[in-house]
Structures are given as C-alpha cells and as structure tokens.
Amino acid sequence: MSRRTMSFRGKHLERRAGEQKRGGLNLVSLMDIFTILVFFLLVNSSAVEVLPAPRAMQLPESQTEERAREVPVIMITRERVLLQNGSRTTDIMSLQDAASQDGNLIPGLQAQLEQDVPLVSVEIDNQTKRTRGEINIMADKGTPFSTLKRIMATATEARFSTVSLAVLQRQPSREGS
Asked: 64-94 as b/e, with b when 16 or more CB fall inside 10 Å?
C-alpha cells in the first residue's frame, strides 16, 4: 500500500512505530516533575518541628499558633516522670510517688532539674538575671491536675523562667459548615 492511499489511522500508527524505535520516552518532563517534588518536600519538611511523643502518653488538644522550641522536656506518662534534656532522658520517679509527696514541690524532680540544666544569664526588664531558661511539660491527658500543678511549681522553683505545656494542635472548627 502506498503512503498516499493510507488512512489517517494508518499514518498515525506508522508515526508512533517510528517514535518507539527512536526511544520515545521524554526524560525532560519526568525530571521536571521530580525536581518539583523534591523542592516541595524540602520546603515542607523544614517547617515542621515535632516533639517526641512516647506511646505511653496521650496529649490533650488545644488551638495554638506558637511552635515548640528545643528546650528540656518533663515527660509525664501514665506511670513515670522523665526528664529529657537534649538526647539524654532520665527516669526521675513514678507518677504515684510524685503524687503522694507532701507539700507543693517535688524535691526529687527539683534536684534533678537543678543538676541537669545549668543556669544562664538572661536580660529581663533591663536587668541581668540567672535562670534555667524555658522548659516544656509533656503530660498524659489523664494526669491529675494537682500533680501537674505541683510539677509546674517545682519547675518554677528550680528557676525556669518559662514553663510551657505541650498539647496536640487541634484544627479550628468551622461553624456553619
């Protein structure tokens, strides 16, 4: 059959067969897609800061805009009170022992905080003060408030200038939808 009498479909099939012989896969488009994907992943991975959440803990939810900074963390699981400072985690005491102690402070926790976190000089209201800086408290949702309050008071007594409570960020509810 001559080329002139060939149908449109026949011409199309012949053209496609010629492209396949030359290697018709266009790598430029594929590389563009992967470049965009890598760029997207790099941008979004650096914007997220995650505190480690042990499996033995369920955090409460809250609506907050501030992100957590890398500071020492008091972790209160359903059974234990732990201190994480950098890559080091110290088991301080059982939650039952912390709850059963008399007074507003927990001496064992205070001693560990003072030992593990050094004092630094900070300027507050045009005055230089010595403080341990910031600390986050990451507590299980079921932790009794009285125990949580005593742990916060102990951190304040150990001269931490800022005590924050870690929570899961809840998505704002949309009313009317």
From this structure: eeeebeebbbbbbbeebbbbbbeeeeeebee
DSSP state of 149: H
Residues spanned by the domain of 106: 61-169
> Distance (Å, rounded) from C-alpha 152 to C-alpha 157?
9
- Whether residues 33 and 74 share a domain: the answer is no
The token pair at 39 is 């760029």
82 within a domain of the structure (yes/no): yes
Q: Are strands 61-62 and 168-169 parallel, antiparallel or unpaired?
A: parallel
Asked if residue 79 and residue 164 are part of one domain, the reply reads: yes
Please write the tens of the pLDDT for every residue from 123-172. 777 888 888 888 999 988 889 999 999 999 999 999 998 898 887 766 66
Contact 113, 84 (CB under 8 A): no
Residues 27 and 91 in one domain: no
